[in-house]
Amino acid sequence: MAPVLILMGSQSDWPVMQAAAEMLEELQVPWRARVVSAHRTPDLLATTMQQAEQDGVPVVIAGAGGAAHLPGMLAAFTTIPVLGVPVSSKQLKGLDSLLSIVQMPKGVAVGTLAIGAPGAANAGLLAAQIIGSSQPDVRQRVQAFRQQQRDKVMANAELELGE
After folding, report:
1. Which amino acids does the record list as binding substrate (predicted)?
2. Strand partners, 86
3. Is 134 annotated as a binding residue?
4. Is 88 within any annotated ligand binding site?
């Protein structure tokens, strides 16, 4: 299985995007990460997506803050599913990033997740679900993960609270 590609606009995005890698590791889905800036290295962005196409990368997870053009620019170069993770910015707390990623023009789709690490973790989970649609072993691991989530809630469902 070709690895999921985790891209970010800056090395400073890694603390957020690491949550995607951790989820993929938990689900035993291979991944690799790289810094590619939509604004500072547009040539690298294009060649990275050409290589991803050649390598059979099944899903790209892209994190970006501020203007957050990276996920949309990546999607413009490929038909590989791109999942965008808005990274929180100092000025607007990630709302600017969220709106930039989610407001893609008709015909260039980017799946947009929540701002920050929760969105990155869910991007990893969603990437595994996409892969699991054609790979039963990955689907089974996702199902087991979801069952673990349910079991955790059910273990606490009968707590006496507030008495």
Report:
1. 10, 13, 40
2. 64
3. no
4. no
